Fold these 3 entries.
Entry 1:
Amino acid sequence: MIWVDGGSFTMGSEDDIADDREKPAHTVTVDGFYMGRTEFTQDIFEELMGWNNSYFSCATCPVNNLSWLNIQLLVDRLNEATGKRFRLPTEAEWEYAARGGNRSKGFLFSGSNSIDEVAWYAGNAGNRSHPVAQKAPNELGLYDMTGNLWEFCLDNMSSNLYARHHQLKGDQPRVNPVHIVEASDPRRMVIKVQRGGGYEFEAEESQVYRRDGASNNVRMPDIGFRLVMERSGNE
């Protein structure tokens, strides 16, 4: 895990090619957190869970073909085994870290303006995922925040979330935002945010502000995750 100092940043984009769900750009503030240096790998997942149904099987490739709900079972087991507090990142934490946190140099992709330097994407991946940490890291030392696999976040997906905040709050910053609508039935299907782009997406679909969604029960070869760890009270 890599410690990410808290701070404020501009989330979203005003680029002409940005989708409506990525607009307007707005200020967000997050507290510090630990984030996984890489996407969660198959070897660690299999050691904890005793199974691995990933496509593109290899120990140091990111685990995939598991649902958002499956990830919650992994998190529960990991927390019980370690006594720590792991979870999926909020969407705001994810974008802040992908942009380089308070060390950001404003790159278009996570760590570079040249996607080939930092990502496995449609132009170089051969339509499959690859072992983690083979490309250059971003400003914080995080790998594959662009490309390789899409990464699930904690939040429910809302295509008009940014616009709704702007209408209600104007330029007032969002502070540690997380968008979760509790369902009466925890098994109910909801759409969860996924970030980062994947191995089959083009460069113009992979900028650091891009956001998409997938249902909490879907399992796909191009969706994985990385975890954050909350800071304990005595740190």
Note: The first strand starts at residue 2 and ends at 4.
Entry 2:
Amino acid sequence: MKTGEEEEEILFKERCKMFRFDNSISNWKERGLGELKILFHKGMNLHRVVMRREQVFKVCANHLITKDMNLLPNSDKSWMYVANNKSDGEAEVEKLSVKFKTPQIANQFKEIWDTCRHGS
């Protein structure tokens, strides 16, 4: 089964819960629970985030990491950011938040994210 990730190196892979900010109700809505990956495509020199929901494997995040994408703390286990998310086909600017099991995993995510930002 092809995933579109065959030519990419996995830099980070952890289970998390993703949320999307819904402006119409001014509240966070759960986007999915699953494995979030930060991938690097050497040939194109691009870093991206891909996350699929557990069991159904539906993509709930698919976006590049760019130099201007800062992570903001939401809690000791959670980071918030804005991305041009293509998970539903059309690119849409969304405010997203990812929550990990431990602060250590969240910090590891931030370290790798920041390395990717500066390498893009």
Note: The chain has one domain: 8-119.
Entry 3:
Amino acid sequence: MRTIKSEQDIHDMARGAVLLGTGGGGDPYVGGLFVCEQIRKGRHPRLCSLDELADDAFVLSIAGIGSPTVIVEQLISEQTLARLLGRAESFFGCRIDALISAEIGGANSVFPLALSAISGIPVVDADGVGRAVPQLEMTTFSIYGIRATPGILMDDIGNVVTVDAASDRKAEDLCRAITTAMGSLSFSAIYPMTGAQAKQAAVRDTLDLSLQIGRVIRNARDGSSDVFAALLGYLNALPGREAYELFDGKIIDVAHETRGGWHWGVVTMQSPHSPDDIFTVQFRNEFIAARRNGKLVTMVPDLITILDRESAEPLTGEMLSYGQRVKVIGLSADPMLVRPESLEVLGPRAFGMDCDYIPVGRCMV
């Protein structure tokens, strides 16, 4: 068990979570400010490893559901978080022993830390996908038999809805409809599980990974080093993973649309060396597929991240705008996500693409 006492750690963790969030999960800026304010008040988030969990511990996922374009406009309310915790313990009829992120990405990496700071309940250093995803059932929790429901959804003004769906796919449909009615943002308490289930199904050490990624970027930037070389060096040293610089150019067009509770769009980039060298990234909350001159170079579940060319600050989809100079990095997914059973739920065909998954390294050839 460790306690986060440094505001810098929160900022680094948020930065790394944006990179792992592949454009989605919401901007963690406001959530990070909330957690830092709690630290200044002497309230500190606590982290525990999966191995520290008792097998019979009651573990619950706290997450925001909705469009990132709406999430970025919302403040985090201490009252809302406390009410969510109270309603969850009342609904499930037991004390919550630990919190866990449904996904590691943007704002959804910060929500459990915020609740930990005000409640003292530890957050497990793990999550349900090792990146961000647009649909509720696209998690290793769901893939390995942990049901998303029963659970609850609530909004800032006190509306509370309980959901108990026949399948996690149906839970996604129901939660998406409820969230749209709540203004395209809800706070959820879902995926009730035991410590033993979490150990079997979660992607490990992802909060620490986001912290280390954020530190690498900050330290290289502060030391006037080549930030992208430092970042790629760190990512390529991760066991079983590989990272590549996919493109370096300027954004020449961004199409955004908030529809059905999702943020849809395509960002188009152009090389400074050749006007005919075009790179596009398609997204639905998260970046789904990247193409260079029409050829696929990266696809889900591998991670696509867009970073500011000067600062190497990772960008969410809603931050992208015409004229930005950016670099695009492709990172292979956590090995849990490329197993056959995972690709059925997280592979390109699950996103409507007419192709099978090809790892980023082979896809670029």
Note: The domain at 231-363 is CATH 2.40.390.10 (CV3147-like).
